[in-house]
């Protein structure tokens, strides 16, 4: 009996000591510190972003965030590669769609599907489905989209009214677009007006190529199909806007005035671009403007540009990292971003809220950005994306200058891009 009591006593004492030791260890360890990397923020933008992080730390006082911001976007890739190579990767990193696949192919990100499966109030269905596409690799999800962008058609309503042209409809076509562009073009010298102006950056051609039923690469990214009839016709259509139909300004004009800035002068009727231009165009006082869907040829298409939060596969704090990613993708965080009109929220509840739609401000039909997400497409984000971009941009520059036509450009790209995808 005495032995039994002694054993019981010892168990109680040892249990108490164990609890004390655990508490002491926990106190010694203190809060968990997560390393977060971001890119492209100015000092002012980072300050606003940090306010969201402070709110997270208040909600989760045992988690602290150490932010490493790389202002130069081109330097961000090298920073991350160096951190992974040194064995000290960030716990959480902000990733752009064009940089994601290179890291995913190296197995550097944590698979998030099992974490999502265990959530009851944080679901993929709460987001626009298309915004996840760029952050899926081999059928698995490796990123939670934080914000997105796409392209729609901005148009000068005042110019349309003066020319007696109906505003673009939801189902307008390339023929409708070209007819409107021709009516909006005219005049001479400094009074010369153009129907449309477009950026010559190579990725801005993707929606037109897709609308025609074409593509640069096959769906599995293993074959170059830039020489398809559909792709060549789309590229030639864009060049013809400048040299054949003369409804888009040549490089000699856009070089002096600025491509997207020409719209603000009132000399251009339409410009296909994204929400990032809304703050600039809201400064316009001399005319009214709105947005419409991009025109279609055989189908509707708009590109999706997005960024996401990814967790390093080797993170020592996966639970805390997941809590942080959830919070930074939540309504509380996205509603802060929504107050700045340069990007689209990825959560439907925030995107359709008055905070982002801003019904009392231009553009009046801002919901079109959200509608376009439903038929949005991800660019062919191969591992050697930057190399592909340099080659395509070089050839497209010759296209926009009138040095080569679409057939010639496609012939060169067919050979050079195949070396990239093989």
Textual characterization of the structure:
With 422 residues, the protein is of the alpha/beta class. Helix content is 45%, strand content 15%. The chain has 19 helices and 14 strands. Helix 18 (385-400) runs antiparallel to helix 19. The longest helix is centred in the first third of the chain and has 28 residues, at 2-29. It starts with a helix and ends with a helix. The relative contact order is 0.15. The model is unreliable at 1-28 (pLDDT under 50).
Provide tags for this entry.
single chain; 422 residues; alpha/beta; 14 strands; 15% strand; globular; disordered N terminus
| Radius of gyration computed on alpha carbons | 26 Å
Largest sheet: 6 strands, mixed
Widest β-sheet, arrangement of strands:
2-1-3-12-6-13
Strand content: 5-15%
> Helical residue percent?
40-55%
| C-alpha termini separation | 79 Å
Count of alpha and pi helical runs: 19
Number of strands: 14
Low-confidence stretches: 1-28
Mean pLDDT: 92
Judged by helices, strands and strand pairing, the structural class is alpha/beta
CA-based shape: globular
